[in-house]
Amino acid sequence: MMFADLVDIDDFRQRLHELGIDVPPDASPEFGASIVRAAQPVDGLPELIDSLCAECVTLQPEVRRAVELILLP
């Protein structure tokens, strides 16, 4: 049986914090993504995004939106 990881906004914020990016708890996905984009390049961010986009990971809608915005060219 396969179990999917669920990533909520608190998990996502914690993972970003571990990379040195602090996103306020009340930040919208748009604002959080703008903070991440402004901080680039960030070591470990591509790997984090890759792991979040893996098949076995379920993202809450806020996290999915933030990831989509971070990936915009």
From TrEMBL:
Question: Which superkingdom heads the taxonomic lineage of this protein's source?
Answer: Bacteria
Q: What is this protein called?
A: Uncharacterized protein
